[in-house]
Amino acid sequence: MAMYRPEHPNPAARRPRLVVLLLVAFFALQLLVVLAFRAVRPPPAPASASTAVSVPVPVPALLSDGARDSSCGDGLVYIYDLPPVFNQELLGLCDALAPWYSLCPYLANDGLGLPAGGTNLSSVLPPELLPSWYASDQFALEHIVHRRLLSHRCRTTDPARAAAFFVPFYAGLAVGRHLWAANATDADRDRDCVALLAWLHAQPHYKRSHGWDHFIALGRITWDFRRSPDGGWGGSFLTMPGVANVTRLVIERDPWDDMDVGIPYPTGFHPRAAADVRAWQRYVARRPRPRLFAFAGAPRSSIKGDFRALLLSECQAAGEDACGSLDCAEGKCIKNNALVLQLFMGARFCLQPRGDSFTRRSLFDCMVAGAVPVLFWRRSAYQQYGWFLPVDGGREEEWSVFIDRNQLRAGNLTVRGVLAAIPESRVRLMRKRVVKMIPRLVYSADGGEGLGGGMKDAVDVMVDGMVRRAAERRRSWSKT
C-alpha cells in the first residue's frame, strides 16, 4: 500500500527553514572562494641581469581589444614574445655593449635612462619640468619602443585580430656589441640576426604574409646593418633575404629602400602626459633667445674640407653675441647633454650638418629645445622622417631653413647673412611650428595610454603609419 505523506497544514511555515538553508549555502560558497584565492600564489618577480637595467616584462593590456577598436584606426598590433636571447638577455650585457662607456645607466627605467634630477640636466631645467627629462642614449630606441608597445592602447594579444606584427628584436644592441671588437668576425655580427630570422620564419603569421605586415625598430642607422658582400663595416641583417619584406623603423633610413622608415632619435624629453608636453612647449616658446644661431659638433680634422669645421669658423666669425658653439670632441656632449640643451634653448636657429652619417640626434635635440633647424643636406631630414615631419609640397620651409653648402663653401654667402635676412615675423611662425611638432618627436614615459588627451607621441605615429601601410598592402594582395 502506497504511503501517503499529508501536506503540512500551513505551507508558509516551511519558508524560515528554506531561508536558513539558503543562507548556509551562500556563506559556504563564500568560504570556498576565499580559500581558493589564498591557495593561488603570485608569480615570482623576474630576476634582473643588472641592477641598472629594467628588463621588459609583458604588461597586461589595460583595456580589452574590443574597447580599443574604435580608436585604433586601421587595426591592432600584435607583439611577438621572442626568446629572451633576442632582447632581455642583451640588456644584461649592458656593460659590454659599447666600447667607450657602459650602457647600463642609459638602459635603466625601460631604456629611458637615469632621471634628470640626478644628472647635469637639473642645472638647466626648472624643477617642475625635471620629471619629464632623462639622460637617454640614442642607441636605446629598441628598448624604448618595445616598452611603449607592450601596453599600447592598440595592442592585441590575439594574433588573429592583428593588422600588423611587431618583432621586438634588439638588433642594434646585438650587432653593436661586435662593431668595434678587435676579434669580431662577420659571422659574429650576423649570428643573432640569422637566429632571429630562423625563429621568425617558423611563425605561422609570418608565413602567411611573408613578412609584409611585420615591422621592427632598429636603434642604429641603416648602414650598420648593410655590410657589403665584399666585407667591411657592420652586419648584413638588412640585406638578408628573410627580412626583405619587413618594415624597418630606423633612426636613419636608406632613401632608396622603401622598406626603411625613418623615425626620431630619442632625446632626453619623455613626458608622461599631454599636460607635461604643453608645459614644456610654453617654456621653450617664451624663453629668451639672445643668439641668432648655434652649433654643437666635433670637427673632423682627418677629413679634407671638413664641413663641420667650416661651420665652427662661421660661428666664430659671427661673434659670441650672434652665435654660440660647442665642440663635442671626445664625447663631451654625450657625457654632458645639458650643455647641448642649454645652447639650443638660447638660440633661434641651430645648424644641422651631416654627422658620421646624414642624420644626427642633434636635429631632434634642436627641435625639442624650440629652435629652428638649419640643414645643408636634404638627406639629413627631408628624405628621412616623412611620417613625422611635413616635407611634401614645400612644407619643409614652415619649420626649417635649407642652405646650399656648395655656395657656403665657395664663400658666396654666410650663415649669418642668410639667417639675419629672414624677417622676424617669419622666424616667429617657424618657431611656433617647431614647438607645435614636439609631441610627435618624443617618446612618452607613460606605459599605458601614452600622452592622452588626443596628443600623439612618436610611437603613436609609428603604430598609425604601420597599420595603415599593412592595410594598403593587404588591399593590394586581394586584387592579385
Using brief descriptors, characterize the structure shown:
single chain, 480 residues, alpha/beta, Rossmann fold, 2 domains, six-stranded parallel sheet, five-stranded parallel sheet, 17 helices, 13 strands, 35% helix, globular, disordered N terminus
- Provide mean pLDDT, rounded: 85
Number of helices: 17
**Strand order within the widest beta sheet:** 4-1-5-6-7-8
Spatial gap, N to C terminus: 84 Å
The structure class reads: alpha/beta
The low-confidence runs, each spanning 5 or more residues with pLDDT under 50, are 1-64
Helix share, percent: 25-40%
What is the number of independent domains? 2
Radius of gyration: 28 Å
Strand fraction band?
A: 5-15%
Topology:
Blueprint: H1 15-39, H2 65-68, E1 76-79, H3 88-91, H4 104-107, E2 114-115, E3 134-135, H5 141-150, E4 155-156, E5 162-166, H6 171-179, H7 186-200, H8 204-209, E6 214-218, E7 247-250, E8 260-262, H9 274-286, E9 291-297, H10 307-318, E10 323-327, H11 332-335, H12 337-345, E11 347-352, H13 362-368, E12 372-375, E13 401-402, H14 405-409, H15 415-420, H16 424-437, H17 458-478
Parallel strand pairs: 1-4, 1-5, 5-6, 6-7, 7-8, 9-10, 9-11, 11-12, 12-13
Antiparallel strand pairs: 2-3
Helix pairs in contact: 6-7
